[in-house]
Amino acid sequence: MKTALFLAAAVAMCGSAFAGTSSHEPQQKAGVIDTVKQDAHQIGSAFRHDMHSIARADKFRQEQGMDQRHAPSGTTAMGAGPAQNTGSHDRQARMDDAYARWQHSHR
């Protein structure tokens, strides 16, 4: 949007610059054309930079979303393991047995 406004302003300036020149000033006309070419190049560079930034931001957000979906739960940092891990029946049995002994000793 910002780039389109800048492009429209450059075209308007270019039109008024050509209207103000005469055929007796070829150096002035060449200078205006070079200036317009340079401005167009800068506009194109800014537009490419903006589009590249937008594309990178979209990719970054997608990667972040994928990382959050595949991230382990916070309990793994404490050694508890993921909640959906049902393969540790022996550990659970040991914990239940230790709790039962603790309850029995504190009655």
Brief summary of the model shown:
With 107 residues, this protein is mainly α. The protein is built from 3 helices and no strands. α1 packs antiparallel against α2.
Low-pLDDT parts are none
N-C termini distance:
75 Å
Run of helices and strands: HHH
Helix content: over 70%
Mind summarizing the main beta sheet? Answer: none
Multimerization status? single chain
- Residue share in β-strands: under 5%
With helices defined by DSSP (H or I, 4 residues minimum), what is the helix count?
Answer: 3
Rg from Cα: 34 Å
Structural class estimated from helices and strands: mainly alpha
**Number of DSSP E strands:** 0
Anisotropy-based shape? rod-shaped
Mean pLDDT: 74
Question: Which characteristics define this entry?
Answer:
rod-shaped, 76% helix, single chain, 107 residues, mainly alpha, 3 helices
Please give a structural write-up.
With 107 residues, this protein is mainly α. The chain has a domain at 1-65. Helices cover 76% and strands 0% of the residues. The protein is built from three helices and no strands. The protein has helices at residues 2-20, 26-70, 89-105. It is rod-shaped. The mean pLDDT is 74.
